UniProtKB/TrEMBL annotation, chain A:
The keyword Disulfide bond does not apply. Gene3D superfamilies: Cytochrome c-like domain. The chain crosses the membrane at residues 6-25. The keyword Iron applies. Signal peptide: none annotated. GO terms for molecular function: electron transfer activity; heme binding; metal ion binding. The lineage of its organism: Bacteria, Pseudomonadati, Pseudomonadota, Alphaproteobacteria, Rhodobacterales. It holds the Pfam family FixO. It comes from the Bacteria. Keywords: Heme, Iron, Membrane, Metal-binding, Transmembrane, Transmembrane helix. This is Cytochrome C oxidase, mono-heme subunit. Residues 44-184 form the Cytochrome c domain.
Automatic annotation (TrEMBL), chain B:
GO terms for molecular function: cytochrome-c oxidase activity; heme binding. It comes from Thioclava atlantica. PANTHER family: CYTOCHROME C OXIDASE SUBUNIT 1 (PTHR10422), CYTOCHROME C OXIDASE SUBUNIT 1 HOMOLOG, BACTEROID (PTHR10422:SF29). This is Cytochrome-c oxidase. GO terms for cellular component: membrane. It comes from the Bacteria.
C-alpha cells in the first residue's frame, strides 16, 4: 500500500464493478420490459401537476410503491396491487419515495377520485382529518370576494372558511389534483412484471415446509 | 420468479468476486506476498521525538520547523473550509429544526411555498451533506494529507478556487430547492445545471491532493491517506454520473438514485470520517493504532462491500429480486470492514482512557468512531428482509441516517475542528468551557433525538403492518416521538451555535505568543 497509481486504479475498478451490478445490468433488464400494457402516458395537465408534486416535495412523506400481500397489508388498505417496474415507464424523475408519514399514493386516483375532496384537503388537511400532520397549501389558492366565471370554489367547513368571500383554486392546485386523480393503476400487471419477490418466495418456502411436515405425520 | 439463469449467475458472481478478492488479500498478507504495513508504518504520523504524550496546545509536541512549514501551506484553505462548513452547519440545522417542528405543528409555517415541509427538509439535507459534512471532511483532508506525507500542500490556490466554486454551488442549489426548482431525486435534488459548478469545484480538489501525494517525502501511505485518496476519486465519479440528465427514467433511475445516495455515504462521507479518526485518535493520544495490518483488510473490504449495498433502500419494491438480494448480502458483509476499523480505533482508545478525559477533541472523535460501528451494525441488520418490513417507510430510517451522518461523521468533524483550528491559527479557543457545553448538548440532544425516532419508528412500522388498525393510528401514535425529536434537535442546534460563537471569537482574538505561535510564523 505504498504506491498511488495501483490504489487509484483498483478503487475505481471496484466502483466500476459496483456500477455494472447496481446500474447497468438491472438497467438492461428493466429497459427490456418496457411500459406495462394498460399504462397511459400523462396528460398535459397531469404532467404539470406532477411538477407541482415534485417541487413541493410530496415524495418525502408519500411513497408510490404498494408492497406485496406476502409482506404487508398495503392492498387491504386500498393502496393498490403490488407495483411492477413497467408501471413507472413514463416517470422521470421517479417518485417511489422511502417514507410513509402519509399513505402510499400509487392508486390515490382510484381511492379518492373527487376533485372537491382533493382541493379541500390540499387547502387544509385538518378540515377533513383532524389527526392529519400534512402541511396545508393555502398558497396554491386565492382568496376572492366573489368567484368569477370558471373559478373552482373550494368547499370548506365553517371553522376553516374565510369570514367573507370564497377560496378558489389556482392553476397549480388544479394541475396537482389532475395528477392525483390520474394516479390509478387498476389494470392487470404484466405476467412477467419485475419486482422484488423475496417475500413471496420466503412465504412459499415456509408453506412447503409446513406441508412437508404435515405429510410426514 | 424472474431470476433468469444469466442474472442468477451475475448475482453469484458479484459476491464471489468480492470474497475471492478478500481471500487473496488475506492470503497475500499471511504469506508475505505484499509487504504488510507494520507498527513502524503506523508511526509515520509522528515526527521524530514525538508521540509519547498527549497532544495539547499548552504542551505541544516536539517542535519541528519543517512540519511548521507544512501546516502553514494548508492552514488557509483549511480555515476557509472550516468557516464555510460551520456556516452551512448552522443554516442546515435551523432548517432541520424547522422541518421537525412542522411535522407536529403542521399549521405553524404555511405562509409561503418556501417554508413547506418538503422544501425545508430538502434544504436541510443538502446544506448539511454538501455544505457541512463534505467541507468539514475536506478541511480534515487538506490538513492531514500534507502532514502524513511530510510535504507542503501543492496548488493551494487551486484549492481556494474550488472552495469558492463549491460554496457558490451549494448556495445556488439550496436557493433553487427553496424556490421549487429541483431535480426531484433524493440526495440529487440540486438542479443539474448547478451541479456543473459543484463538479468544477470538486475537480479543483483532486489535482492538488494527487500532486501532494506524488511529492510525498515518506515511502508509506498512512491508512488515512488510502481512505482520503480513494474518496476524492470516488465522489466526483459518482456525482457526475448520477447527475447526467436524461440518461435514465422510471425504475432504472431509482437504481441509479440509490446507487448514488448510498455510495455518497459509503464511499465519500465514511472515508472522510474513518480517515480522520484513523489519524486523529493515535495522534492525540500519542500512540500508534492497535493493529495496523488489520486496517488494510478493513479498507478493501469497505470498498468491495459498501459499493454494492445501495438497493437495500428498495427492498420489497418494483426492482428485480436478484438485485435486492445482492444488496442485502453485501450489507451483511459490511460487518467485516466495520469490525476491522473497530479493532483498531476502539482498542487504541480503550487502552488510553486517561487521554479521553484530558482531550475534548478526542471525546468528540472517539465517540464519533464508536457511532460508526453502531450505525454500521444497525444498517446491516436493517437490511434483512424481516426487519426491513417493519422499519422501511418509517422514522426509524431517519434515526439511523442521523446515527451515521450526525453521531459518526459530524461528531468526528467537530472534534477535528477543535483540534485543527488552534494549530492552524496559533490561537486558542477563547471559551474552553463552551466546548464542553457543546459536547454535552450534542450527546444529550442526539440521545433524545435517536431514541425518539427509533422507538417511534418501530411502533409506526408495526402499526402499518397491522391490517386491523387504520392508517391514522400510525400517525397519531407518532406525535410524542416527533416532539421528542424536535427537543433533541433543538439541543443539538444549540451546541452548533456554541461552536460558531467560539470560532468567531477566536477569529477576532489576538494571537498569543506561545510556542505554538512559531509553528505558523515559520512559513
Amino acid at each position: 500500500m505504498n504506491r498511488y497509481l495501483p490504489l487509484a486504479i483498483t478503487t475505481l475498478a471496484i466502483l466500476a464493478i459496483a456500477t455494472l451490478f447496481l446500474v447497468i445490468a438491472p438497467g438492461m433488464q428493466i429497459r427490456g420490459q418496457g411500459a406495462a400494457p394498460g399504462l397511459q402516458p400523462y396528460t398535459e395537465a397531469e404532467a404539470r401537476g406532477r411538477e407541482v408534486y415534485i417541487s413541493m416535495g410530496c415524495v418525502y412523506c408519500h411513497s408510490q410503491q404498494p408492497r406485496a400481500t406476502a409482506q404487508a397489508p398495503d392492498a387491504e388498505r386500498g393502496w393498490g396491487r403490488a407495483s411492477v417496474a413497467g408501471d413507472y415507464a413514463y416517470d422521470a424523475p421517479h417518485l417511489l419515495g422511502t417514507m410513509r408519514s402519509g399513505p402510499d399514493l400509487m392508486d390515490i386516483g382510484d381511492r379518492l377520485p373527487s376533485q372537491g375532496w382533493q382541493l379541500t384537503h390540499l387547502y387544509q388537511p385538518r378540515a377533513i382529518s383532524s389527526w392529519s400532520i400534512m402541511p396545508a397549501y393555502p398558497f396554491l389558492f386565492e382568496h376572492k370576494d366573489k368567484a368569477a366565471q370558471g373559478d373552482v370554489v373550494v368547499k370548506l367547513p365553517p371553522a376553516y372558511a374565510p369570514e367573507t368571500g370564497v377560496i378558489v383554486a389556482n392553476q397549480e392546485a388544479l394541475d396537482l389534483v389532475a395528477y392525483l386523480r390520474g394516479m390509478r393503476h387498476d389494470y392487470a400487471p404484466p405476467a412477467d412484471g419485475l419486482r422484488d419477490d423475496g417475500y413471496a418466495l420466503m412465504a412459499a418456502q415456509a408453506k412447503s415446509k409446513t406441508e412437508a411436515a404435515k405429510s410426514a405425520q | 420468479m424472474q431470476i433468469t439463469p444469466t442474472l442468477g449467475l451475475l448475482l453469484a458472481l458479484s459476491f464471489v468476486i468480492s470474497l475471492i478478492a478478500l481471500s487473496i488479500l488475506i492470503w497475500a498478507i499471511a504469506n508475505r506476498q505484499v509487504r504488510t504495513p507494520d507498527q513502524d508504518d503506523a508511526r509515520t504520523i509522528f515526527a521524530p521525538g514525538e508521540g509519547a504524550e498527549i497532544d495539547e496546545h499548552d504542551k505541544p509536541h516536539h517542535f519541528d520547523p519543517v512540519r511548521a512549514g507544512i501546516d502553514a501551506s494548508s492552514a488557509r484553505p483549511v480555515l476557509w473550509l472550516v468557516g464555510a462548513a460551520v456556516f452551512w452547519l448552522i443554516y442546515g440545522s435551523l432548517h432541520g429544526l424547522a422541518a421537525s417542528l412542522e411535522l407536529h405543528l403542521p399549521d405553524m409555517m404555511t405562509g409561503a411555498a418556501q417554508m413547506t415541509f418538503g422544501r425545508m427538509r430538502t434544504v436541510h439535507l443538502n446544506s448539511v451533506a454538501y455544505g457541512w459534512a463534505s467541507q468539514a471532511g475536506l478541511a480534515s483532508v487538506f490538513w492531514i494529507i500534507p502532514r502524513i506525507f511530510h510535504t507542503r500542500l501543492r496548488h493551494a490556490g487551486m484549492v481556494k478556487t474550488g472552495i469558492v466554486l463549491w460554496n457558490i454551488g451549494v448556495a445556488a442549489g439550496v436557493a433553487a430547492i427553496a424556490s421549487g426548482w429541483t431535480d426531484g431525486l433524493e440526495w440529487l435534488e440540486i438542479p443539474w445545471q448547478i451541479d456543473i459548478i459543484l463538479a468544477a469545484g470538486a475537480a479543483c480538489f483532486v489535482l492538488p491532493l494527487i500532486q501532494t501525494a506524488r511529492a510525498r517525502k515518506v515511502h508509506h501511505i498512512y491508512v488515512s491517506g488510502w481512505y482520503f485518496l480513494a474518496g476524492i476519486l470516488w465522489f466526483p465519479v459518482l456525482f457526475v454520473i448520477a447527475n447526467i440528465p436524461g440518461l435514465h427514467w422510471g425504475i432504472e433511475q431509482a437504481t441509479v438514485n440509490w446507487w448514488f445516495a448510498h455510495n455518497v455515504l459509503g464511499l465519500w462521507l465514511t472515508p472522510l470520517g474513518v480517515g480522520t479518526a484513523y489519524y486523529m485518535i493515535p495522534k492525540i493520544i500519542g500512540k500508534p493504532v492497535y493493529s495496523y495490518a488489520v486496517s488494510l483488510v478493513g479498507f478493501w473490504a469497505l470498498a468491495l462491500f459498501y459499493s454494492q449495498v445501495g438497493i437495500h433502500h428498495l427492498i420489497g419494491g418494483p426492482v428485480p429480486t436478484w438485485l435486492v438480494t445482492l444488496s442485502i448480502v453485501h450489507s451483511v458483509m459490511m460487518f467485516v470492514p466495520v469490525i476491522a476499523v473497530a479493532i483498531n480505533q476502539h482498542v487504541t482508545v480503550a487502552r488510553n482512557l486517561w487521554a479521553f478525559k484530558e482531550s475534548v477533541p478526542l471525546r468528540f472523535i472517539s465517540l464519533g468512531a464508536l457511532c460508526y460501528t453502531l450505525a454500521s451494525f444497525q444498517g446491516s441488520i436493517e437490511a434483512l428482509r424481516s426487519v426491513n418490513s417493519i422499519t422501511h417507510f418509517t422514522h426509524y430510517t431517519v434515526g439511523h441516517a442521523h446515527l451515521g451522518a450526525y453521531a459518526f461523521v459530524s461528531l468526528v468533524m467537530m472534534g477535528a475542528i477543535y483540534q485543527i483550528v488552534p494549530r492552524a491559527t496559533g490561537k486558542q479557543f477563547p471559551f474552553p468551557r463552551m466546548i464542553m457545553w457543546h459536547f454535552w448538548l450534542n450527546v444529550i440532544g442526539f440521545a433524545v433525538y435517536f431514541l425518539s425516532l427509533t422507538i417511534g419508528g418501530v411502533l409506526q412500522g408495526l402499526a402499518m403492518l397491522d391490517a386491523t388498525k387504520p392508517f391514522a393510528d400510525s400517525v397519531t401514535l407518532l406525535k410524542p416521538y416527533l416532539e421528542g425529536r424536535s427537543l433533541g434537535g433543538g439541543l443539538m442546534t444549540l451546541g452548533h451555535v456554541l461552536l460558531a460563537i467560539n470560532l468567531i471569537a477566536l477569529a477576532f482574538a489576538k494571537r498569543e505568543t506561545t510556542e505554538t505561535d512559531n509553528m505558523v510564523a515559520a512559513e
